[in-house]
Design brief:
globular, 155 residues, single chain, alpha+beta
Length: 155
């Protein structure tokens, strides 16, 4: 589902004005490969991403998004980085800025497949052979595979 119901309700009140929203990135790694989705909205490869529902624990949101978007079960191992996006203008004109919490996740089951209409393809990529993608998406993957035990706070 591209727009969560609570965001649609907010948009009915505030229109396209900029919203500050919590989001997660689930960087799923298995056998020196990372799971990426080909996004339907911009045609670019990215790790699994999504908006945290009101009252939802962010690690639970990362696990939920992995199942919804890529049909895989994961463990959420640690918070790898925290960052704030630049302002995003969506195709419909909505503006948003996202507080992103990037989680290191491990695949535990399920065949990777498109699970919703947000993506057109899902596949495993070797960590040393990633496709072209936005710089912040490369950084999020790097934050996870660095293997650090502390969270990175990105400026």
């Amino acid at each position: 589902m591209p727009i969560p119901p609570f965001v649609a309700e907010l948009r009915a009140m505030v229109g396209t004005h900029r919203l500050w929203l919590p989001a997660v990135t689930a960087v799923v790694v298995h056998d020196e490969q990372v799971l990426l989705t080909l996004r339907a909205d911009n045609g670019r490869w990215a790790p699994i991403t999504g908006i945290v529902d009101p009252g939802e624990e962010p690690a639970v949101a990362a696990r939920r998004e992995a199942l919804e978007e890529a049909s895989v079960e994961v463990t959420v191992d640690r918070l790898a980085s925290v960052s704030v996006s630049d302002e995003v203008r969506h195709g419909n004109g909505d503006l948003g800025i996202y507080l992103d919490l990037t989680f290191a996740c491990t695949w535990v089951g399920g065949e990777a497949a498109v699970g919703d209409d947000e993506n057109t393809e899902v596949r495993w990529w070797p960590l040393d052979g990633l496709p072209d993608m936005a710089g912040e998406m490369h950084r999020r993957i790097s934050d996870v595979v660095a293997g650090e035990s502390v969270t990175r706070f990105v400026r």
